[in-house]
Design brief:
Number of strands: 7
Radius of gyration: 17 Å
Number of helices: 6
Structural class: alpha/beta
CATH architecture: Alpha-Beta Complex
Strand content: 15-25%
Order of helices and strands: EHEHEEHHEEEHH
Distance between the termini: 8 Å
């Protein structure tokens, strides 16, 4: 029976979210910091490839079942950019909040401000047992970033069905609707069934 799962991230927000969602399984979820794991270079061309790269590396280095995600924001009118390069795109354009101005300039007066977040969550239980779960959250870009919650592109993204940006939302609300929460929920459902078979 699996006692411990490694979440291959140094991001404490992601770790906390995973710990909360996976808690009912009764497993301990530890982050990369706890095991001094290095970052893995993301050389994949899709969210799925990058997530698997990170999860496989974490499993190889520790022998622990590993979860890793790759996520990003895709802006429909910009041919789904920045996509898998979302973090690097922000860095290249002065970080946050400077990158928000860059996106607004690129969109100009285009009325189509639709965007979506994608999260690919890779789970590597052993060398033969790999899965990838996809979560998606649709919405649109706000003209003006708002809110101090969340991180990254959150203050500029208004999810469908809401009037607030993710940056204005309470974490509990965001964690129910986010792309990462959806991918983690699918991971949870898979592990729950997997554990039943292992009993």
């Amino acid at each position: 029976m699996i006692q411990k799962i490694l979440l291959a991230t140094h991001n404490q927000h992601k770790l906390q979210e995973a710990q909360e969602i996976l808690a009912p399984l009764g497993v301990t979820v530890v982050g990369a910091d706890a095991l001094n794991l290095p970052d893995v270079e993301e050389t994949g061309t899709t969210f799925q490839e990058n997530a698997l790269l990170k999860a496989r590396a974490a499993f190889r280095l520790t022998g622990l079942p590993a979860i890793a995600d790759d996520s990003g924001i895709c802006v429909c009118a910009l041919n789904d950019e920045p996509g898998i390069y979302a973090a690097r795109y922000a860095q290249k354009n002065g970080g946050f909040p400077a990158v928000f101005d860059v996106l607004n300039q690129r969109l100009g007066d285009n009325p189509d401000r639709r965007a979506y977040f994608i999260c690919a969550m890779a789970l590597v239980l052993d060398q033969k047992n790999e899965s990838v779960f996809i979560g998606r959250m649709d919405g649109q870009l706000a003209h003006t970033p708002k809110g101090l919650h969340g991180f990254g592109y959150d203050p500029m993204f208004i999810p469908d069905g809401f009037s607030q940006t993710l940056g204005e939302m309470d974490a509990k609300v965001k964690n129910k609707i986010s792309h990462r929460a959806k991918a983690l929920q699918k991971t949870f459902d898979f592990l729950k069934e997997y554990f039943k078979k292992e009993e």
